[in-house]
Amino acid sequence: MKKLWIRLRTAFDDLSDRERILVSIVGVLFVALVIYFGVIQVSLGLRSDAEYRLAQAEQQLKMMSRLRGEFDDVNDRLTSVEQRIQVSTRGNLRTTLESLAQASRVKVESMEPQATPSNDRYRETKVEVELKQVTLQQAVSYLHQIESSEQVLSVKSLRMRTRNDQASFLDVTFTVSTFEPL
To answer: What is the CATH number of the domain that holds 126?
Structure first.
């Protein structure tokens, strides 16, 4: 490296004054370009990249905060339902549904037990209920009785159809389930 520097210095000294000025100007421009592209542009690029990553991190933090809020909300509701299941009255689901139907003055056409998946903590009992020729008022009353029962009951699916022969009456089919701790 030392030999190269000596050769360059000797070659520079052998130049005329005008050539030395031109070589010096080109050298200064070269050093300025190296500094600009090697240091300033890299620093600006790193800063821009850091700002982008910061914006992404803030966006992810907002999303995580929102998801945490949703998780807490769902967890609170789950805890509430589990507490209701623990303290609720227990009984035969079909018997309960029949007594609620009588209180709502609804005639139940059929009740069919449904298969339920197994669970480690709770046993689910599910029944499909079919009502024929009921008014909207009767159907709503019966569904309200089910939802507000002392036993924890939940309507899982609901299908309502108007009758072709009598438009003021409905045929209603829905599934009701209840849970009991094991």
So the answer is: 3.30.70.60
